[in-house]
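1st attempt posting a full record on here, be nice pls
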Amino acid sequence: MDYAGLFSRATPVEEHPAGTLAQVTVSVPNPSRLVLDFSNHHQVRTDACVLLCGSIGALRLLELGYTGPLVTRPRLAACEGARLHRELPARP
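the predicted structure (as C-alpha cells):
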C-alpha cells in the first residue's frame, strides 16, 4: 500500500464520525479502494468519496495510482470540519 497522508472525512465511516482524521493509503492490489486507518488501528476499505479532499489531496491520491471516484471539496470545508474536532486538515 502507498501512504497518502492524513485526511479528514466528510461523512461518517462505521463508528467514526465525520470530520475526524484517518491515515489514508492506496491499496496496491485494488487501486480503486483506499484503506483508512484510524487511531484505534481499525482499518476500513472505501473510496475517496468519504474524504474531505481538496485539489491537492486529490492530486496526491492520483499520483499514488488511485483509480476510484473522487469528490473534490473546497479547502474551507476541510478546515471547518477539522476545526470542529480540534484537528488540523491534511497537508501534502
